Amino acid sequence: MRICTEQGIYGERIPYAPEEKKKQIFITTNPENSAKHHQSIIERAMAIVPLKRGDIAYVDLGDDKKHCKIIGIRPGIVISTSEANIESPLIHMVPVTRTLRDLDSPYHVFVDKDDCINLKVSGTALCDQVVPVDRTQVIRKFGVVADARLMDKISRATRLRLGL
């Protein structure tokens, strides 16, 4: 293990003592081992069957309670293209919540269970919280958006939010 005094690409940032708050260090492992580890993570993710645009899957969004983003295990709708999902270990999803909240927001879309296959409860697609998801975070696919109009509404809300 090495200690670096400058920012690097490996390791975790750890602040110095309080009197030197502005300085930071990185504790790193051997870069060769880190590169191999990173490659093994990518290979493991790529071995998982890719999802298609419009698929609905349970995904683990972590437990970061310090920020205003949605967390936990919840359904998400795949918005990245099927072609991109084949080529990349990452997919982009819009989280879905059962709560019917802020439906007057241009970034929230009502997801009717009748417009989807195998969705048991209607909810809200949170297009203001698009998340990149490593394939290893996907727990399982369980449904698909069957109505093209719903997928179009989600796409428009996402583009509006991202300014595209």
Automatic annotation (TrEMBL):
UniProt keyword annotations, A-Z: Toxin-antitoxin system
Database matches in Pfam families: PemK_toxin (PF02452)
Gene Ontology MF terms: DNA binding; RNA endonuclease activity
Gene Ontology biological process: mRNA catabolic process; rRNA catabolic process
PANTHER family found in the cross-reference section: ENDORIBONUCLEASE MAZF-RELATED
Protein family according to the UniProt entry: Belongs to the PemK/MazF family.
Name listed for the protein in its UniProt record: Type II toxin-antitoxin system PemK/MazF family toxin
Species whose genome carries this gene: Lachnotalea glycerini
